[in-house]
Amino acid sequence: MEPRIFAGPPAAGGPESLADHAARLGLVPRGSAAEATIPVIEASGLLGRGGAGFPVGRKWRSVAGQAGGAPAVLVNGAEGEPLSSKDRTLMRLRPHLVLDGALLAADAVGADRIAIYVGSAHRDARDSIERALVERRDIRLPVQLFAAPATYVAGEESAAVHFVNAADARPTVTPPRPYERGIDGRPTLVQNVESLANAALIARFGDAWYRGVGRSSTPGSALVTVSGSDRDGVREIEIGTPIGELAEVAGAGRDPRDRQAVLLGGYFGGWVSAERGWGLPLDPVELRDAGSAFGAGVVAFLGHDRCGVRATARIMDYMAGQSAAQCGPCVFGLRAIADATAGLANGTAARDDLARIERWSQQLAGRGACRHPDGAVGQLLSSLRVFGSEWEIHQRRRTCSREGFRSFAVPVVREKVA
After folding, report:
1. 308-396 — its CATH code?
2. Which 3-state string (H, E, C) describes 257-305?
3. What is the C-alpha separation between 83 and 267, in angstroms, rounded?
4. CB-CB contact of 326 with 369 (8 Å)
5. At the top level of CATH, which class does the domain 221-302 belong to?
6. β 221-227/233-238 pair status
7. What distance in Å separates the CA atoms of residue 226 and residue 232, rounded to the nearest whole number?
8. What is the pLDDT of residues 30-45, one digit of tens each?
9. Per-residue pLDDT tens for 206-239?
């Protein structure tokens, strides 16, 4: 688990200063040198860390090749995923690495404006970025900081652009997409902060350096937020690290029998049983091929004393409450599913609630104005697979087999590097 982004001074020392950052890493390529980095980023195999896992180099090239005026760069640090704290931790501890990536991207795609979009609830991260901007005298283009609303959908790339343009953080679903026409109608590169930090390192040390870490076909390292273990927090791992190995390091157990299940990717991700998941590699490509998701880098372990049905009901209620309120499937469909799921969880279910949520989930997929309902029903369907017998108990007996149940609460955010 060799660190890369978090190499350098210990987390206890707080944000790295510009002087220490420059002394440790040197200067990031700028100007024409930055323009030559797109092929290097492409060759590195770097995948985006915002959840979709899209190749970063390809995304930069698509923006650089657009007509319609100088592009803009939107640095996405909204991080609305309740179980993730990796992005805010990165911005708090390594703000200059994030800014390096933003400046590199701007030069590479020919942008003349940078918007930095940080979750309004992430005050330490925002303060760190603001202080870093004051230190930077090498910035010669407009940089504006925006406070992203504390909503789940606010971090979706079209929602972020919509907020910068119109102070409305709801996704827009009609083409053109942001890379074609985004901020002020310009081609816009929307990139997650961890992706930019990695790009800044690759520009310094090369694509071969980046590919030198990793245990599977996908190269590099990644930040993950671990919860449900003895040592929760943000960790930097080699991509391809088995879930079981991470569990042992984090104090979640050495054996799959030590945990009941694992939630991967966050609320937009899905459940896998511990038995199946222990050997799975934490690799965006391999997890996708296995029917799971790396998503926002969330790895949440569920103990045997907790109920998967009730955990899922809590998530579904949250997702229904985070609707962008732009279409019936999201506003009414998700709420109906969440209410029926809550009934199953708390022992007040109607006779056919389990059959109804299964049917509604199949009907809702693909019908929303944005992907929010798709993520929610994907989460539910994974729970029905993993905790099938428990769902049946809740339906038939209106009780829970997990007598030692404790609620699967959203954990307090721990801005620490474990």
Report:
1. 1.20.1440.230
2. HHCCEEEECCCCCEEEEHHHHCCCECCHHHHHHCCCCCCCCEEEEECCC
3. 8
4. yes
5. alpha beta
6. antiparallel
7. 5
8. 887 888 899 999 999 9
9. 999 999 988 988 999 999 999 999 999 999 999 9
